[in-house]
Design goal:
Layout lengths: L3 E4 L2 E4 L2 E3 L2 E5 L9 H10 L4 E5 L2 H4 L14 H10 L3 E5 L30 H18 L10 E5 L4 H4 L4 H12 L5 E7 L12 E7 L2 H14 L6 E6 L15 H13 L3 E8 L10 E2 L5 E2 L18 H16 L20 E4 L2 E3 L1 H6 L4 E4 L20 E8 L5 E4 L7 E6 L2 E7 L6 E4 L9 E8 L26 E3 L2 E3 L2 E6 L3 H8 L5 E2 H4 L6 E9 L6 E4 L5 E6 L2 E7 L6 E4 L7 E9 L6 E5 L6
Parallel strand pairs: 4-5, 4-11, 5-6, 6-7, 7-8, 8-9, 9-10, 10-11
Antiparallel strand pairs: 1-2, 2-3, 12-13, 14-33, 15-26, 15-27, 16-25, 17-22, 17-25, 18-21, 18-23, 19-20, 19-22, 23-24, 27-32, 28-31, 28-33, 29-30, 29-32
Helix pairs in contact: 8-9
């Protein structure tokens, strides 16, 4: 029997009245060296619980191959929470939304042209059964009833926004029970879905929202359904997220205070989403497309109570004040204190100069994940070598021509999401997801050129992570790249080489140690996509920095081989967070992949600029 239960609108833990004061911290958005710091700060603010999602797409990067080490060491994170006296709310998905690429679903699902995710489509069911068959036994012994900290497990996520058919929730619930999950099961839905959200027997509904009005609407719906259900805000949105090319989002302390006091006045429990947002490292950021496609930025600061680098804010101090006040009313006391070293920001900036460059030709020569195709297909369609797949980054469609191409190059329909057309490594045009005419005029002439290399480089800027009932099919169409015939002045070009430029760990190690780097001064002006490398030294164990990207246009940054994420001059984000543990005393290497031509310097700054 589950240790956490409820009766007459009240949670009971081991039969005793219990209130949940929780904060969301995603282990996969924080370097492991900082997990304890973030958890300690949550505890010090009076919280007794931590909540985390689980990203299926990282834990099963290709079918049947599972990862759970480093930043994915879920068991270590849960045990660390327990050691600090925190309970855990476990939200395994398989769909998690979370402004995460494809809502956490692995993109290789879309290799099936008939795939219908978040449904009882057999191909999806089989994949979920295999994944949960690995994940759930992996953490089953960490449940409260078996001596661990996990007190509740969520069934899917915000399904009421996506569907009012409970059949898929029943399927997920059955898998949880089959795979040793014995704790209290919950669902969560926002205000707009609360009237049609599927209610399941034996599963507690909880609310999502930010304002008093949003929370009240969901609370009323839950209270009407059963007088037994305790009230809880599973996602009390403390801030909001950002999109490239749009203003930076913030939410005031006053909004958080007003809603929190309303929640607590109704003797409800709460989970702050996010308490600490962290970072969408690498290519993991998702996107929205409710009216138009809007990719998310690298930072997941979220204007949360703890900043992206773990700093206490006015919002966290206000939450600490209100929660401790509520604990006092319950006859309880917050016995935890803040960590001694709260601030790990560096105090002096470091200028780094990029002295070496690798041109496009040498960069692509290092790519080993390659295949061939009569005509371009979407990224998810291809397999490489020993059943490798590509989920992230850039896909390159290459055609060698026996002449210098001239005329109009027409791409096959909508580009997903941003294509750069190169001739012999030089950019000749770009097409994006919202281009009305997906074509480029080629007019380069070179009488000495025997043949030419035509490259169409398409960047996946992030798969949509959230859709509504009226557009369910959008999730099933999140394939990236291009698909169909590319035509030059009306003539189809066939027999393409395909390169998966995903900057995986093997590739980043290869390029960092490559002998193809040239001195920047000797290489001259670099027009097209290229790699730039800088080596610099730090005298002592480094602290946190924020690398400034002003003067650069668009690309990614690798710090000692770790992909810290995208930058883009359209903003709002102008710095990328560099956690101190990614750096080291002594020699450090920064590699930048600049898509549109870069400058020679960057600065490791001491303050973030998010917009």
């Amino acid at each position: 029997m589950a240790a956490l239960s409820f009766k007459r609108r009240e949670f009971l833990l081991d039969g005793q009245p219990f209130r949940i004061f929780s904060g969301a911290i995603h282990y996969f958005r924080v370097v492991p060296e900082y997990w304890q710091d973030r958890l300690e700060k949550a505890r010090a603010c009076g919280l007794n619980t931590v909540e985390t999602y689980v990203p299926w797409n990282l834990h099963e990067p290709k079918p049947g191959h599972f990862q759970h080490d480093g930043i994915l060491d879920l068991r270590k994170f849960i045990k660390m929470a327990a050691d600090l006296g925190l309970f855990v709310i476990f939200r395994p998905g398989p769909y998690i939304c979370s402004e995460w690429d494809f809502g956490g679903l692995p993109s290789w699902l879309l290799a099936d042209p008939q795939m219908r995710v978040r449904s009882n489509y057999p191909g999806y069911q089989r994949a979920v059964e295999r994944y949960f068959g690995w994940l759930l036994p992996h953490i089953a012994d960490l449940q409260y009833s078996r001596g661990g900290p996990i007190i509740a497990v969520q069934v899917e996520n915000e399904y009421g926004s996506f569907s009012d058919d409970p059949a898929h929730l029943e399927f997920i619930k059955d898998i949880l029970l089959t795979n040793q999950i014995t704790e209290l099961l919950v669902t969560s839905d926002n205000e707009s879905a609360s009237k049609t959200a599927p209610f399941l027997n034996g599963v507690l509904p909880t609310a999502n929202g930010q304002t008093v009005e949003e929370v009240k609407a969901s609370f009323d719906r839950i209270a009407e359904t059963s007088p037994e259900y305790p009230l809880m805000v599973m996602e009390f949105w403390t801030g909001w997220f950002d999109h490239w090319g749009y203003p930076h989002e913030t939410r005031g302390v006053d909004v958080v205070e007003r809603t929190l006091r309303y929640v607590l006045q109704h003797d409800a429990s709460v989970n702050f989403y996010m308490f600490h947002g962290g970072t969408n490292f690498g290519f993991t950021a998702g996107a929205l497309n409710l009216s138009r496609y809007k990719p998310d930025v690298t930072s997941y600061d979220y204007d949360a109570p703890l900043s992206e680098d773990g700093q206490m804010t006015d919002k966290s101090r206000k939450i600490k004040e209100i929660v401790e006040e509520e604990l006092g009313k319950l006859g309880l006391k917050n016995g935890a204190s803040l960590p001694v070293d709260q601030n790990n920001r560096a105090t002096k900036p470091v200028r780094i100069r990029f002295n070496h460059v690798m041109n496009w030709s040498n960069l692509t020569a290092a790519v080993t994940k390659t295949t061939s195709s009569a005509h371009p297909q979407y990224m998810e369609t291809y397999t490489y070598g020993t059943h490798d797949v590509q989920s992230f980054g850039y896909i390159v469609y290459r055609k060698v021509l026996e002449h210098t191409p001239r005329g109009r190059l027409a791409l096959p329909g909508v580009v997903r999401d941003r294509a750069t057309v190169l001739v012999n490594g030089d950019p000749v045009g770009q097409v994006t997801w919202d281009s009305e005419d997906p074509s480029v005029e080629l007019d380069k002439t070179d009488p000495d050129q025997v043949d030419s290399v035509l490259d169409v480089v398409v960047e996946n800027l992030g798969r949509v992570n959230y859709t509504t009932k009226d557009n369910q099919a959008m999730l099933n169409s999140q394939r990236k790249g291009i698909s169909g015939e590319i035509r030059l002045d009306g003539t189809a070009l066939s027999n393409w080489k395909v390169l998966a430029l995903d900057f995986n760990s093997e590739f980043t190690s290869t390029i960092q140690e490559s002998t193809s780097w040239e001195d920047v001064l000797e290489a001259g002006v670099v027009k097209g996509p290229a790699l730039f490398k800088a080596t610099f030294f730090l005298e002592e164990q480094p602290k946190d920095y924020f690398i400034q990207t002003v003067g650069w246009k668009k690309g990614i940054i690798l710090v000692n081989g770790f992909n810290i994420g995208r930058y883009w001059s359209v903003g709002p984000q102008k710095t990328l967070y560099v956690p101190g543990p990614l750096l080291r005393a002594g020699e450090n290497v920064v590699v930048v992949f600049e898509e549109d031509g870069g400058t020679g310097e960057m600065t490791l700054g001491t303050e973030p600029c998010l917009g």
